[in-house]
């Protein structure tokens, strides 16, 4: 079993695993991410696997010593959060569609912001006048929001909102993002299911045969890396070479990665 997708803390597991592991079994507690951005870790206070954002649904499997083991609703990813990062379920209506935005205490641009909100944060909008949306704790610029279920059409255009964002291993926001976080955020915004890590993403969609023309939005994979095809000559990716999100010539990137020991392209997928 892939530990990233297995709701088993090592002591407590969800009922769906009964018969597969030895554990105390629970039905889990429905909730949501309660902070703007949180690290989802392999162990309590351990290495970051991914990041999760405000309002994303989750199931709490176990609470222990100031941490909680959860399974995320968007992709089934499992890991540990600080206990305060998991709160009650939220009846969200909208998501942040801009690269980032802010929560304000009042509907006034001069007001000092309460907190920054990352791309993908899910909010329950109580009312909106077209300029400001009232949510729990204050107001958000309405033009930065998009109704849940209102899918976007071009994942490349979504990913380009992150151009210039710094590279961060396991990152999922404009403050720091990695290759698979960029791809997942773009595809989810377009209503397409997508797992969190590049090795998982290399199994979605259909294979594009070697030599066949690549299309905008196709995915290119190397060992441990993924990029999006912008056009026949250009890719877009968050990468550890330039340490940011940028466009790069496809042929140049393929040659550079091979020269630096990253190997050849291992898969071409169309989602």
Automatic annotation (TrEMBL):
The keyword Hydrolase belongs to this UniProt entry's keyword annotation: yes
Source domain of life: Bacteria
UniProt keywords, alphabetically: Hydrolase, Protease, Thiol protease
Record-annotated membrane-spanning stretches: none
Pfam family, one: SH3_16
Domain NlpC/P60: 149-271
UniProt xrefs under PANTHER family: NLP_P60 DOMAIN-CONTAINING PROTEIN-RELATED (PTHR47359:SF3), PEPTIDOGLYCAN DL-ENDOPEPTIDASE CWLO (PTHR47359)
Family under the similarity heading: Belongs to the peptidase C40 family.
Protein name: C40 family peptidase
Species the sequence originates in: Paragemmobacter amnigenus
